[in-house]
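I had to read the description of the data format several times before I understood it. In essence, backbone conformation is discretised, so a fold becomes a row of integers matching the chain in length. I therefore recommend that a typical entry be quoted early in the introduction. For illustration, here is how one protein appears when written out as sequence plus structure tokens.

***
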Amino acid sequence: MSESQLWDDVDDYFTTHLAPEDEDLTAAVRDSEAAELPHVAVTAPQGKLLHLLAQTQGARTVLEIGTLGGYSTIWLARALPADGRLVSLEYSPRHAEVATRNIARAGLDKIVEVRVGAALDSLPQLADENPAPFDLVFIDADKSNNPHYVEWALKLSRAGSLIIVDNVVRGGRVADAGSTASDVQGTRTAIELIGRHPRLSGTAIQTVGSKGYDGFALARVLA
């Protein structure tokens, strides 16, 4: 058995017993695949982790940067109270259309808003609305802009908020200081920003699974 097959088998086991997908989650995956969206959504165990983190936070408001087909959005929104709010920013109108259908099917369209456009355009527009601080921010968009997304997450959050940055290991390439790849450089800059910022306390975790070798960073806003 190959290493990657073993990772898949373990993920399948965890999914079966700890993060079983219901009809709405399964349909979100199916429709995303049918629309030929990139296969980069979080796995079921990772979605359940986002759900549990939002619950642990007691989150009422969530900001998601990068919607894709809405799979992670559904996991996060299900952790919110009936009067909660989740704003998800998606660059691609096509992806946003698929996500909006998936979110509505899951009965979450009353608390989830998908905004279409480049996140670095949408974020200042959101800030101009002076929203209540977000309790949790999930960053899973273009990796070259990760530092900017972390900075915006800080502006739109509060002391005690949790910032999660996905896909920070880049298959191990994040350790290569000489890499010129924009995704690696953006991720390294974000990690180093978290490490030195006086308002943040963070760490990063390496993972293996159906998405291969990857990981995520967690940062708590201190003040």
Notes: The chain is about 45% helix and 25% strand. The mean pLDDT is 97. The helical segments are 3-18, 23-34, 44-57, 71-77, 93-105, 119-128, 146-155, 182-196.
